[in-house]
Write a structure and sequence with these properties.
By secondary structure, the protein is α+β, with helices and mostly antiparallel strands. The protein contains eleven helices and 19 strands. The longest helix is centred in the C-terminal third of the chain and has 17 residues, at 398-414. It starts with a strand and ends in a 5-residue tail after the last helix. It binds flavin-adenine dinucleotide.
Length: 498
């Protein structure tokens, strides 16, 4: 089997890249370890999803202390975006520059917001993002407008927006890749952390792959777990080994795009070590797997005992008043947005509570998601031990996150929610993982050049969350998609033009 372009992984990076490369006519093969999610009753059953973990993978990783855990990542066609909250934020323009935080300095990008902006616009158009440009003062300049109006607030959320505005905040509609009518036609549930099987959620399968697979030159092979990349004597990548139906297979490729997600892409590069590259591929800088970041996150429930929240989906509101300032010395604190509605089965899966107590709380709560930047640290890293993945996440900037939490709780109480509960998200859920193969101009300090081509192997690109030099404090998917479009355009002009 051989191909012009081999893409490993069909998540946000891989599928979007495939969509943009497909019109070139090049033979493109996408190898994906997972299968398509089937449209069963489980996909809208909160108990099945959150209690039984029906869609979770069965893999285990180790932490630095040797404890084993099951990571909250999803291996399906479409990757993690199948269960994502579809929040499609742009990084704020200041995220592209070095920025001082309470816990250290965020390094900024090797390219400017202005350079990157056209790709954000294309990604928003492709993923049919719904939003509003005139509400959030931190919204960076857009060269176009959103093609659709924002997903409407439900009445309890419109009331929450008014209460927060009364406290001097500037609530805005979340930018969302959700067709709300199509989503609700499949069942009256939230979409955040629920798998998508139709067109309601604009994810890597329902958008990116759908576009790519309209072209006969694109082939998707599911159930194919890539185990190793192979090199030629000149350092070029020859192809990959993978396992399908328990049997080993090989594929040769002229250009390889690694899009297995920040942890798996790093692990694959490290596992592919050979005599010529004894510390792993693309790793002359010793940076592969380093600078692993996730976000610092909390769930917060705000309640008034006599006010019910009958919202179904809830996840439409955010504010960025503390995104660029708010710390004791004016440092950035982070973003606040709504979670999908926490219902009684979801709450009971997280906290031991009798059914009636869970129903009482969830029937009244408005549920928030607080997110602060995690800063890059070379000792925060992915390594491999034999065939096992070791994730040693060294969380940073936590004090800033706790500041955000304290400030928000105080605002919520003043805005009319006397009861405020909070809980940090589990460290075993690296849902916003990024940064393990960062891009940059210096081959000694970065794994990828500014086009996400590895410094060490001219025909190997990494196109997923790995490239991010900082995590910012907004959800990463739109930035991954925009970079995939930018890199695909470069591949077309260079490798495929030759
Ligand atoms: C519950 C949840 C909610 C989220 N909500 C949001 C949100 O609202 N907004 C947002 O911006 N982000 C959100 N995220 C994060 C977002 O989904 C990810 O940042 C994004 O999908 C990452 O894209 P990626 O291309 O880096 O990797 P992935 O989407 O993880 O794709 C990697 C793909 O590679 C495949 N793969 C892995 N290893 C191999 C291998 N060895 N061989 C072959 N295939 C392989 C995987 O199966 C997967 O399909 C959420 C994530 C989760 C889990």
């Amino acid at each position: 089997m051989d191909t012009d372009v081999l893409i490993i992984g069909s998540g946000m990076g891989g599928a979007t890249c495939a969509a943009a490369l497909a019109p070139s006519g090049a033979r493109i093969t996408i190898l994906e370890r997972g299968e398509r999610i089937k449209d069963t009753a489980d996909t809208r059953d909160a108990f099945s999803i959150f209690n039984f973990g029906t869609f979770r993978n069965d893999e285990t990783w180790d932490d630095s202390k040797g404890n084993t855990f099951n990571p909250g990542n999803y291996y399906f066609v479409g990757g993690n975006s199948k269960l994502y909250g579809a929040v499609m934020f742009r990084y704020r323009s200041k995220d592209f520059c070095a920025l001082q935080h309470m816990g250290g300095t965020s390094p900024g990008w090797p390219i400017s917001y202005e350079d990157f902006e056209p790709w954000y616009q294309k990604a928003e158009d492709m993923y049919e993002v719904r939003g509003s440009l005139d509400e959030d003062p931190t919204e960076p300049p857009h060269s176009g407008s959103y093609a659709f109006p924002p997903v409407p607030h439900e009445p309890a959320i419109a009331d929450a927006a008014r209460r927060l505005a009364g406290q001097g905040l500037t609530p805005a509609h979340l930018p969302l890749g959700v067709d709300i009518d199509a989503w609700l036609a499949g069942g009256a549930t939230p979409w955040d952390a629920f798998p998508n099987t139709g067109d309601g959620k604009k994810d890597a399968e329902s958008v990116g792959l759908k576009i790519a697979l309209r072209h006969n030159s694109v082939r998707l092979e599911t159930g194919c777990k890539v185990t190793r990349l192979l090199t030629r004597a000149d350092g070029q990548i020859e192809g990959a080994e993978f396992i399908k139906d328990s049997g080993p297979c090989r594929i040769a490729a002229k250009t390889v795009v690694l899009s297995a997600g920040a942890v798996n892409s790093a692990a694959l590069l490290l596992r592919s070590a050979n005599d010529s590259f004894p510390t792993g591929l693309a790793n002359r800088s010793d940076q592969v797997g380093r600078n692993f970041m996730n976000h610092n996150t909390h769930a917060v429930m705000s309640l008034h005992p006599f006010r019910k929240n009958p919202s179904v989906y809830q996840k439409t509101l955010c504010f960025n008043d503390f995104y660029l300032s708010g710390g004791p010395g004016g440092e950035p604190l982070g973003n606040i947005q709504l979670l999908g509605k926490i219902t009684a089965p979801i709450l009971a899966s997280q906290v031991r509570l009798p059914g009636p107590a869970a129903r009482w709380l969830a029937g009244r709560s408005i549920d928030w998601y607080l997110m602060s930047e995690d800063l890059p640290d070379p000792e925060s890293r992915v390594t491999v031990r034999g065939d096992r993945i070791v994730l040693d996440w060294k969380r940073s900037n936590w004090e800033a996150h706790l500041h955000l939490l304290r400030r928000f709780k105080s605002i919520l109480r003043k805005a009319g929610w006397p009861l405020v509960l909070s809980r940090a998200f589990d460290r075993t859920v690296p849902s916003h993982q990024c940064g393990t193969a960062r891009f940059g101009t210096d081959p000694d300090k970065s794994v990828l050049d500014i086009w996400c081509r590895t410094h060490d192997h001219p025909n190997l690109f990494v196109v997923d969350a790995s490239f991010l030099p900082n995590s910012a404090a907004v959800n990463p998917a739109l930035t991954i998609a925009a970079q995939a479009l930018r890199v695909a355009d470069h591949i077309k002009q260079t490798d495929l033009a030759a």
